[in-house]
Amino acid sequence: TVEEGSGLENELEVVEGMQFDRGYLSPYFINNQQSMSAELENPYILLHDKKISNIRELLPVLEAVAKSGRPLLMVAEDVEGEALATLVVNTIRGIVKVAAVKAPGFGDRRKAMLEDMAVLTGGTVISEEVGLALEKATLSALGSAKKILVTKDDTTIIDGAGKKADIEGCIKQIRKQIEE
Q: Coiled-coil region(s) at which residues (predicted)?
């Protein structure tokens, strides 16, 4: 990405990150009118492999994030209905800064991409398949990153908080898949 700075020189900074082609689910998440994007600094990242439509299952983790004062990126199969409406209202009122996006890919590919995001951000994919229910999720299950940029078309995770060794292992696995 290109960012404006306050210095007189141009600087090049190579950043570890990931971009995928899914944008925000509501324009109400936009907080930078100039770039028409949602920018989240030092956010928590919730990764979920199902649709979220019921706010009750999301409330415990949402309240914990609100208390922490940090923003939240939600990546799920979909966020709709009452859950999406509540996130929009909380964002507009400034209670908690949120951006919600659909998970990239479909089926097994989606699971693999969510797992890659979990490795990159140091989080866990909240999935009932592995015995994790959304209503029982805590802050320790969430990933984090230095910055997230969400436009209407794509999402960029910049400098995820995952362990370097885990990320390198993931990169090796992806390279091996490319060679096959």
A: none
